[in-house]
Amino acid sequence: MNLAQLQQCFQAYVLGGDRTIEAQIAGAEHFATELRLGVYSQGYTARLVDVLGESFPAVQAALGATRFAHLVGEFTREHPSRFRSARAYGEELPEWLAQQLTAPRAAGVAELARFEWAMAATFDASDLIPLRPESLAAVDPALWPRLQFAFTPTLQRLTVRSNCVAWWKFACAEQPRPSRWRLTCTQHWLLWRQELAVYYRRLSQAEARSLDAARAGCTFGQLCEPLSGPVAAAALLRRWIGAGLICGASVSDAT
After folding, report:
1. How far is Cα of residue 180 from the mean position of the Cα atoms in its chain?
2. In terms of pLDDT, which residue wins out, 6 or 182?
3. Which pTM does this prediction carry?
4. Which of 157, 166, 74, 54 minimizes the C-alpha distance to 112?
5. Which domains does the chain have, with CATH numbers?
6. 234 phi and psi, to 5 degrees?
7. 30 has which bridge partners?
8. Better pLDDT: 153 or 82
9. 27 vs 220, more confident
C-alpha cells in the first residue's frame, strides 16, 4: 500500500469507521491498534464539536454543554465535514436539530441555530459601498416609479415562530433566561453589517413584505401600492439607505 492509499484508508477510518487501515497499523502490548487509531477518530469528532460550539454558542447555552456535546457528536458522525474551512461546517445543523428534539423546544432550538448561522453569515459576507442619498437626489422624478434597488450581501432575513432571539440575548448575558420557547405570533427579523459591527432588528409585517419584494426586484412604484402611496415607501427607503442596506439603484427597462 503506497502513501496515497494509506492516507485514503486513514481518512475512511476517521470519517466513516472503515477498518481497512487496521491491517497497516501495528499494535503494542498496552496500546492496541484500535486504541491508537481511536485517538484520531475520537479527536476528530471532538474538534468538530468544539468548532460547532464556537459557531452555535447560544444553542450550547440553551441545551447545556453536556446535551449539546452529545447531540452534536451524533451530528458530526451523520454529517462528516466536506469543507476545507471549519467555518463552512454546520449549515445542516438547524434542520437536523429540528428532527432530533421534541416540540416546542425542537422548533425553537432549530430557529436559534438558524439565527446564529445567519449572524455568522452576515459577518462573513463581502462588502459593497452603500448607496449615498445624494445619488438618488439626482434621479429624474419621472423615473422613480421604475427604480430598482440592489442590497448589501451582508443582509439576512429570518422569519421565526419561536422565542429564539430572546434565547440568543440570554446566551449573550443581555437578559434573563426566557421562560418559554413558543411565541404567540410570527416575528420577522433583519440582520446586516456595517463595517465590523453586526446589527439586527425586528421588522413589522409591512416592512418585511416590502423588503422581500424590493430584494426580489420590485420597483419603487410597485412598493408604493401596498404601502398607501409614495410617502410611506420613501420613508422605508430612507431607513434602508441610512442603515447601509442598499448598495445600488437602477432604472428598470420594463414599462
Report:
1. 23
2. 182
3. 0.82
4. 166
5. 1-90 (no CATH), 94-255 (3.90.930)
6. -65, -35
7. none
8. 153
9. 220
